Amino acid sequence: MPLTALSLNTLRAFDAAARHLNFTRAADELCVTQAAVSHQVKSLEDYAGKALFRRTARGLVLTDEGALLAPTVDDAFQRIERLLQTFRQGGPQAVLTVGVVGTFAVGFLMPRLADFRARHPHIELRLLTNNNKVDLAAESLDFAIRFGDGAWRSVQADMLMRAPLAPLCAPADAAKLRHPDDLSKLTLLRSYRAQDWQAWLRAAGASSITPHGPLFDTSTLMVHAAQLGEGVALAPPCMFVRELQQGRLAQPFALEVDVGGYWLTRLLSKEPTAAMAAFRAWLLVQLGVSQQNQAGQVVR
């Protein structure tokens, strides 16, 4: 029997019975007879091929299978109700799921999300942070914002902004750094992009230094460790403007090395929706990027 053969009444009867653990009280809630609830539950048990309730001396209890099914059914009904409520209130009518590298999420997106919600109240934006390793298809993402050179297969990539890297650390540590060679005296915090420190040190004329500090999977966490005096991080200063302005973080050297930027990517096989077009347009406007002349657009 296909799932479509089950009626909402059958699932609603099970949901009520699972919450009350009493067919009579479930029947009262649903304004039906106790026999009707019992019949609906029996239909669901027949479909599942498992008993969902067990009668004991203390009353009705859920079987293991019933205990697994109950929260799923309850959550489904609640989600349907919440969505219908937003429709009635003129709220979100589209869902947009965006995977975004944590540094960009915290340093750029978060302060601007209120503007997006105000301009597009019909779109429910879901942000999933990642460490730049993302699978658009497997994670069912509409977009992914990631750091790199834009050379990802099977995606359209819009350049959002360059993000050159520079050493960042606590002010107390910055006071110890007069020349790039002084970095050898401190712990150099590392990201999964091992080549980035090499690129900066080479440009600074200090290529003899080899980073040996702790490895972090996100720049946000790495920079936070640097703020706490755990060492020197290599990260884009443009994503930590507030921390630098407030004196919680310092940039001891002006030299910045460009090894990549932030890109908005989507699968070429995914047809853009109206919500996707709205988010892309809003994001490009926030960054001052022309939509008509995207010199940084790459299709692979």
Please explain how this structure is put together.
The protein is an alpha+beta fold. Strands 4-3-5-9-6-10 form a 6-stranded mixed beta sheet. A two-stranded antiparallel sheet has the order 1-2. A hairpin with a 2-residue loop joins strand 1 and strand 2. It is elongated, with a radius of gyration of 27 Å. About 2% of the residues have low confidence.
Task: Please give a quick description of this structure.
The chain has 300 residues and is an alpha+beta fold.
Task: Note poorly predicted spans.
Answer: 290-295
Structural class: alpha+beta
Name the strands of the widest sheet in spatial order.
4-3-5-9-6-10
What is the H/E order?
A: HHHEEHEHHEEEEHHHEHEHE
Helical fraction equals 25-40%
Q: Approximately what portion of the residues adopt beta-strand conformation?
A: 15-25%
Q: Any idea of the CATH topology of the largest domain?
A: D-Maltodextrin-Binding Protein, domain 2
What characteristics describe this protein?
two-stranded antiparallel ribbon, 300 residues, 3 domains, six-stranded mixed sheet, Arc Repressor Mutant, subunit A, D-Maltodextrin-Binding Protein, domain 2, alpha+beta, 11 helices
